[in-house]
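Task: sequence design from structure.
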């Protein structure tokens, strides 16, 4: 009897408890649906705002932003869905509101995300799409840099009469460092005592410790503004630095360099080569350019000087792939910076107007080597070759393949090209 009564009491108590709880839960869910509405609205509004902000920035900034957008959108969509499921028992009106709000928000999110994703995919996935090696900015950029280096235009109030004196070389290298910085590089000086090289690094987009180096000497002989020899090579080097910023897939690092005191016996490039060895930089090839602004026969020929290993074939292959038609001629010319690198054990090549072929400036090391004598179309034509060869070389696998061929061939190449070399130019 007692036990039964106790059980009955317990059952009645449980029934009352359940009833009380269900009332309370109705109240709570009624209140809660208001909360849930304001929460889910607040969340999705907040997400939408921050997304649209990030997206519009992210178009120019890059890939990581747009990825995190997609994740946070997916999360907030999932949350909103499970909330509206819980509500559906109690309040059908507020559910309908919530759903329609959520749908509208998620639709606009999806559209903007899809657009961003599509752009991102085409940027990163297709490494074969190289930027135009003759970009729209190139001609004006080259004229401006040439004008500054040759005193045609002032650099901070100074019109350079030469790039021979200590003061003028200082002005020139400061201008080059500033120009690199304006492009977004972190320029460095390599001070070796009697002079200073300027260099900057464009890091690979893949994990790599390998470097390819491109450079030209910025100094000149005395008594001339040294437009052809070698403001032209300096302009091409800076143009490459700018162009490579648009190459999205880079399998190795690039070092951009401006050498000092080439005219005093390859002092800058020799010091740089020795320094790179001391610092254990893994430089897989060195490309230098000297005198590239004369083309009286208008054939756009580029001389390829002492190309180590398979570098000549590589230049020819790249030119063919890029649809570039200027003739490339191998020569044994030396007397300039690539010689210093080769002497220090690096795989190297030099680029020049037709020095060996005879179509070279008559203003060589003379006061008449001025801005007015520069063949800008020819200089630009060669720049498209340099741009494309480097973009091509940076594609996944290309530089490594080239390095393997050069490593096995270099000793033979050095023997073939042993001096004596022509005078320093
Ligand atoms: Zn020179």
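Answer:
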């Amino acid at each position: 009897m007692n036990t039964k009564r106790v059980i009955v009491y317990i059952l009645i108590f449980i029934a009352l408890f359940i009833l009380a709880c269900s009332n309370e839960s109705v109240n709570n869910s009624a209140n809660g649906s208001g909360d849930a509405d304001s929460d889910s609205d607040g969340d999705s509004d907040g997400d939408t705002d921050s997304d649209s902000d990030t997206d519009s920035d992210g178009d120019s900034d890059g890939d990581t932003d747009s990825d995190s957008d997609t994740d946070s959108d997916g999360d907030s969509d999932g949350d909103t869905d499970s909330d509206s499921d819980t509500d559906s028992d109690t309040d059908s009106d507020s559910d309908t509101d919530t759903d329609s709000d959520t749908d509208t928000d998620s639709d606009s999110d999806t559209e903007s995300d899809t657009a961003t994703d599509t752009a991102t995919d085409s940027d990163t996935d297709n490494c074969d799409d190289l930027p135009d090696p003759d970009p729209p900015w190139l001609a004006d950029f080259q004229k401006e840099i040439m004008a500054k280096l040759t005193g045609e235009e002032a650099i901070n109030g100074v019109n350079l009469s030469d790039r021979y004196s200590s003061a003028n070389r200082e002005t020139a290298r400061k201008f080059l460092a500033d120009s690199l910085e304006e492009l977004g590089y972190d320029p460095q000086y390599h001070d070796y005592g009697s002079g200073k090289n300027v260099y900057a690094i464009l890091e690979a987009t893949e994990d790599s410790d390998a470097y390819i180096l491109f450079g030209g000497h910025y100094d000149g002989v005395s008594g001339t503004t040294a437009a052809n020899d070698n403001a032209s090579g300096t302009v091409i080097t800076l143009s490459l630095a700018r162009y490579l910023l648009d190459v999205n897939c880079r399998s190795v690092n690039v070092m951009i360099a401006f050498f000092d005191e080439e005219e005093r016996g390859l002092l800058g490039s020799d010091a740089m080569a020795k320094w790179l060895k001391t610092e254990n930089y893994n430089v897989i090839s060195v490309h230098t350019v000297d005198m590239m602004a004369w083309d009286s026969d208008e054939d756009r020929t580029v001389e390829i000087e002492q190309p180590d290993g398979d570098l000549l074939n590589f230049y020819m292959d790249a030119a063919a792939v890029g649809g570039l038609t200027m003739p490339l001629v191998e020569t044994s010319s030396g007397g300039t910076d690539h010689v210093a690198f080769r002497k220090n054990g690096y795989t190297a090549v030099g680029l020049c107007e037709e020095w060996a072929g005879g179509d070279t400036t008559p203003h060589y090391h003379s006061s008449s080597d001025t801005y007015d004598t520069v063949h800008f179309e020819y200089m630009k034509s060669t720049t498209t070759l340099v741009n494309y060869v480097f973009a091509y070389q940076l594609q996944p696998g290309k530089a490594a393949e080239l390095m393997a061929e050069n490593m096995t061939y270099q000793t033979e190449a050095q023997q073939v090209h042993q001096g004596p070399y022509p005078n320093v130019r």
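The first helix runs from residue 2 to 61.
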